[in-house]
Amino acid sequence: MILPKILIVVGPTACGKTGMGIALAKRFDGEVIAADSRTVYRGMDIGTAKSVPDANPPPFMGETEGVSISNLFAEQPRMVEGVPHWGFDLVEPDEPFSVSDFQAYADKKIAEVVKQGKVPIVVGGTGLYIRAILDRPNFGGATPSAELRAELEEMTDNELLEEIASRDPDAAAAIDDRNRRRLVRALEILRTTGGTLAEHQEFGKPLYDALQIGIAMERETLYMRIDQRVDDMIAQGLIDEVRELMNKYGAESQAMTGIGYRQIADFFAGKEKLREAVLRIKYDSHHYAKRQETWFRRDVRIVWVSTIDEATKLADNFLKR
């Protein structure tokens, strides 16, 4: 059986994944599917560094003449530099969205892109989302306990992550520490089963022939890029965005667990000054980027590059074979 070919671009936050994904999409007539656990939420734009949509959308997004009624109500991509991007604004910030939800969504979009004769290009830094596409994992052996769940809910995010790291360092490197639900569930599995998460995963048959391209960057350069991105987010209105989300969904909602959101929420709560909150966003982003690198470096299937030209050559050879 011939599996559909897909390109995957991975790497830590702020390393340039978006730009590389767009370049590959233009070169190989592709469409981008975002693999990011935060861009799925509506209204969370600045703090998730969503790409700015094109000012002039294509006809099918703005004109109705000759377009079927069904197409008017169908999900439309976010256009960035003329390239369709999928995976943005799928749910409200207080709605649940699991790894399995992403897997189902990505499978659907990949099939649609392939059917059009185009190349699916998955771009993102959420390691569990990438694994869901490639390795088809399923967890088992951990029946939820109301008593245990209540105990875990009393713990802070840092306490949850620290215990996960003590029990399963690999899981701590992979998990999205911006998502409290996943932290609670991971520790629930670890406590219930007594083993590591990997020991209690089952993997399905691969559905895709994938080339994984990782973006390599010096740590110092990466941290500088992160810090500049945070400064840009503040200038673009991150504080107002967080205020609006808090007013609509509350300070304890899922929307407030992400880096950039929880720190500004603490500022509004009077827990720290704005300058301290911004510095903590940078520090936490550095830490998250380091953990992303650790996770991706463990995957020997990833080919690391430093330039778009290198990535283009790899993709060209892969798609031709």
Question: What does this 3D model show about the protein?
Answer:
With 321 residues, the chain is α/β, with parallel strands linked by helices. Helices cover 50% and strands 12% of the residues. The chain contains 14 helices and 9 strands. It has helices at residues 17-28, 59-62, 69-73, 99-115, 127-135, 146-153, 157-167, 169-174, 180-193, 219-236, 238-249, 261-268, 274-297, 308-320, and strands at residues 5-10, 30-34, 78-80, 83-86, 119-123, 137-139, 201-203, 209-215, 303-305. Strands 3-4-2-5-1-8-9 form a 7-stranded mixed β-sheet, sandwiched between helices. β3 (78-80) and β4 form a beta hairpin. α6 packs across α9. The longest helix has 24 residues, at 274-297. It is globular and about 55 Å long. The protein starts with a strand and ends with a helix. Mean pLDDT is 86; it is low at 55-73.
Strand order of the largest sheet: 3-4-2-5-1-8-9
Low-confidence stretches: 55-73
- Average pLDDT over all residues: 86
Number of strand elements = 9
Helix and strand pattern: EHEHHEEHEHEHHHHEEHHHHEH
In terms of DSSP E residues, the strand content is 5-15%
Q: What class, by secondary structure content?
A: alpha/beta
Q: Can you tell me the overall shape?
A: globular
Major β-sheet, in short? Answer: 7 strands, mixed
Distance between the termini: 15 Å
Helix tally equals 14
Please summarize what this structure is.
This protein is of the alpha/beta class. The protein has helices spanning 17-28, 59-62, 69-73, 99-115, 127-135, 146-153, 157-167, 169-174, 180-193, 219-236, 238-249, 261-268, 274-297, 308-320; strands spanning 5-10, 30-34, 78-80, 83-86, 119-123, 137-139, 201-203, 209-215, 303-305. The protein starts with a strand and ends with a helix.
